[in-house]
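Appendix B, example 12.
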Amino acid sequence: MIVSGKPCALDGCIADVQQHIDGLSNGERGMNHHRGINRVRTSWVTGAICLILIGLGTQPGHAQDHAAQFDLSKYQGKIVWLDFWASWCVPCRRSFPWLNQVLAQYGDKDFIVIGVNVDKDPELASEFLTETPADFPIIYDPDGKLATQFGVVGMPSSFLIGRDGQIITDHVGFKRHLTTEYEASIEQALAQ
């Protein structure tokens, strides 16, 4: 099992993820920020993600697409907020209303939110989405392959990806008092 929930000081959830990140650590450097949970990756290997998201026809908030079909290059020219989440994750429930809000606020400016659910049981994701609706497409990653590609270490894990496919910033957890900072990152990316 690649992802298994465990309690943690970071908003009460963390996931253990395989340590091997195929082709993604090239040029990576850490940046201590917010107790070390933020990192900036300076290099992005788009070839590591050779998968296609069937975005057309995907209804927001339904875990219908699979990670094996995700291709980040499809979104080149857009700012992407890629959010990994699980049904058992309390901070994930808190983050969805904010994700819906920033999508509504910036969606007309080439900004997109994509959720990636890591639950093994799709029914758990479906129940979560019934209780906590998403206005954005959901990718289903039950084997954790996409989570491993991105080096996900906790839930939720979010990656802000620039128009060129490079990861601008990422963070683990969701803290309401940091949403202004998250939005500033989005605005700065949109301005470039």
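The chain has one domain: 11-191. The mean pLDDT is 74.
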